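ENTRY TYPE: paired fold submission
RECORD: A
CONTENT: sequence, then structure tokens
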Amino acid sequence: MVVSGFSGVNRRFAAASAAALVLLVALAAGAAPASAAAEEGGKASRYRGEILGVNRDEGSFTLRNVTSEGKELIVFHVQPGTEFTNAKDGSRMSFADLAAGCRAVVRARREGGRRLALAVEVRVPEKKRD
């Protein structure tokens, strides 16, 4: 006999339903997912892919990030302390050296809703020989 009116299965269902309701309320209130919240102002994350474009006026570039889930476009903003290095020989580079078609590994963190590039390792495509 069940005293509380719920069997074991119903208790698990009720707990799962309550957890889902809390998640829905948090998302409706505009709460960021846990991974984005952890990245905001804290731990840096790593991204890799092809640079699709560079906006010199805004100090930003767009990367086609490649993950196990697929591809996503991410805009990164640079700051005076952003480090740029050549992946081939480790030499220093600058924001001016970035161009569409370069491959890059970016270490960045979220701040103020934007992704700030902390370090960018760039692989410049080799020029084709005629």
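RECORD: B
CONTENT: sequence, then structure tokens
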Amino acid sequence: MKEENQAEKKEETSEASYEDDLDKGLMIAVNREDLKMVTALLKAKADASYQDDDGRTPLMSAASLGNSDIVSELLMAGAPWNVLDKYNFACGDYAAEKGHNNTYEQLVNHACTAEMLLSHITKRPAENLDYLKQKLVFADNKILDANGDAVMMGWEGPLMRLHAALMCKGEDGKRETGDMLNVGFGLGLIDTYIQQYSPRSHTIIEAHPDVYAQMLKDGWDKKPGVTILFGRWQDVLKDLDQYDGIFFDTYGEHYEDMNDFHKSLLKILRPSGIYTFFNGLAASTNAFFHTVYCRLVEAELMNMEFTCEYVSQDIEKIFSEGKDKDIWEGVKRKYWVLNTYNLPIVKHMDILDCCGDEPAEAEEEVENDSEMKEEEHPGKESSPKKAKLSASE
């Protein structure tokens, strides 16, 4: 982040009076931790969203210093929490790097509140149906859309394995496999693992005609217990029953669409059921944004009377072990830049209350699957709990 050099550079310019340039003066005042002057400059209309040549904002500087009072003053003045500097760091990343846990939490809470308020006053995005009309490319263990963006890639396999184990056998690996629902087939990775558990029923919703055609070609309509519902989940929701395990991973939809699906969980997830989803929330940006949206989903699910906790998996080795070429070769844009995957575990609130807060550890762990470990983001009160999810070969 080059923070030390930045701080020194700002101090060198401190000979100029604050009045010469209100915005630069604000940066100087923040770096000096001069709260009185920060307040005065903001009242004088200094720009709380000012960025220097490196893209650094006053809020980033305050976060790096862990000065919660100045952070509060800047936020009240409208300083944006979701700005990135030239190194792709946000204000929360500055706090995290310096270990300022309280400041980090302060920023996460503010960001979540801002996003929830924004969702109530902004117009809902239009339905994105263009994807369903595109010709897809199936090649090299990935699916690409017409723009060359990845719909799904094979590297997700180890994660799908864990999701399937959670849905089918529970956190302790001992639950009897019941009725499973997957929304979004893609490469069929999670459905392949679900089949290994011989579920009582296995319902798959797939909306894209090319993927559906590939499913039929591969004989998925003839696999034991499988029912394929061809169409958008919004259109087939009325045909759904109740399920013991549900997984959600669609493409070409908005955050609001997933939130709408969550509202249906009260009807389709059995009282003892487990819901989970592919957690690509802001995964193409940075860790702070990802944490904000994980927390946002957690809060929104709680309002729907569900609990949501995350179990963290170090997935850096997925991108490095045994790879002779760039895993993103042939893909227009990366949709993942993080080294940690936060696997969501969602339950009806009363079920978790009955079972206790801590997820039970599995008797055995899958060979080559690394142990789930606590999330490393500082200050996260509801950070993922340590647990092992069992999976069968």
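NOTES ON RECORD B: Residues 3-121 form a domain with the Serine Threonine Protein Phosphatase 5, Tetratricopeptide repeat fold (CATH 1.25.40.20). The chain has two domains: 3-121, 133-355.
STATUS: closed
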